[in-house]
Specification:
The protein is mainly alpha-helical. The chain is built from seven helices and no strands.
């Protein structure tokens, strides 16, 4: 996946906040609607710094991942809102954790954990 520049993200967010539609921006800049909304949300919360790529790599342990997944299910919220709450820059990371848990047979464990 190509990493998009800070300048491009800022240009897209600025255009969106000035009233340009997400569909128009998708076509013009060849970016997903999901990315546009994610960038806008991060911009509103953190300002322009929220659009910068993180240079530090984050390693999340299993307990943290389970806590995030449990919070998401308990609050019945989106990946984007969960990522924002836990300050995880890419909501897709959480989706990957959930998919991995299901594939590895963790569904029963998750259901048991979340039933409390």
């Amino acid at each position: 996946m190509t990493k998009l520049s800070y300048g491009l993200k800022l240009k897209v967010v600025t255009a969106y906040l000035q009233g340009e539609s997400s569909i128009s921006l998708q076509r013009k800049f060849d970016v997903s609607k999901f990315s546009i909304f994610n960038w806008v949300q991060r911009y509103k919360k953190y300002g322009s710094e929220g659009l910068r790529r993180r240079t530090d790599s984050h390693e999340y342990d299993g307990d943290f991942k389970l806590r995030v997944l449990k919070w998401k299910k308990t609050h019945q919220t989106t990946y984007a809102k969960t990522a924002d709450y836990f300050q995880i820059s890419n909501p897709g990371t959480i989706a990957n954790w959930q998919r991995s848990m299901m594939i590895l047979g963790g569904q029963a464990y998750l259901e048991k954990t979340f039933s409390n």
